[in-house]
Design brief:
alpha/beta, Rossmann fold, HAD_2, 2 domains, 9 helices, 6 strands, 218 residues, DNA polymerase, domain 1, 6-stranded parallel sheet
């Protein structure tokens, strides 16, 4: 195993429930009823994919991009002002171990580039990743495998030499369809997710070590 590719929301920071809340607030702002249950199926997917399926219910003229922009605005305000959002327990130690052993790490997230940059800056992680890709910049994000296939290519590696760490069904499908190995973090705050296609499932990021990552190819 020559590189590790991280998802961000639900893996680097415990933010899936925050994203869901901001989606609900956005839909409410545009006169569309929505519940937390409506958001579960979209965990790991882009904001554009979510709002595309709801925009037709708006009570006033609005575009998908306007919804996306509004959601990003209130999410960024929350992240920048919040003192209750932290990196997930164990993630900093794992990043340190990988760097100490010269294992390249990348980030491939469905989040908008502005959101990714804000999160990484807040927690001092901006320089941790050799390559960062936002699914919002692709024609299709997770569960489409392009985001992980392109990240592996940018690292100069075939997908089978990379392991992805994910928390969501959509991301696991994307990783496996791209040809990478995948470790699923069973994050209780990400809602019910089908992790069955992952090569390994852990209950804590603390359960992931370089030794376990290397064992995936054996």
């Amino acid at each position: 195993m020559k590189a590790v590719i991280f998802d961000m929301d639900g893996v680097i920071i415990d933010s899936e429930s925050i994203h869901a809340d901001m989606k609900i607030r956005t839909l409410t702002h545009f006169g569309i009823p929505c519940s937390m249950e409506d958001c579960v199926a979209y965990v790991g997917r882009s904001a554009k994919a979510f709002f595309t399926d709801f925009v037709h219910l708006a009570t006033k003229p609005v575009s998908v991009q306007e919804m996306v922009d509004y959601k990003h605005k209130i999410y960024l305000e929350y992240i920048q002002d919040s003192n209750t959002v932290y990196p997930i327990d164990g993630i900093l130690d794992l990043l340190y171990e990988l760097h100490e052993n010269n294992i390249p790490v990348a980030l491939a997230s469905s989040a908008d580039r502005k959101v990714i940059n804000a999160v990484l800056k807040k927690f001092g992680l901006s320089d941790c990743f050799k390559y960062i890709l936002s699914g919002a910049e692709l024609p299709a994000s997770k569960p489409n495998p392009a985001i992980y296939a392109l990240t592996a290519k940018a690292l100069g590696l075939p997908p089978q030499d990379c392991v992805v760490i994910e928390d969501a069904t959509a991301g696991i499908i994307a990783a496996k369809d791209a040809g990478t190995y995948c470790i699923a973090y069973d994050n209780p705050n990400s809602g019910p997710q089908d992790l069955s296609r992952a090569d390994m499932i852990v209950d804590s990021i603390n359960d992931i070590s370089l030794n376990k990552i290397l064992q995936l190819q054996n």
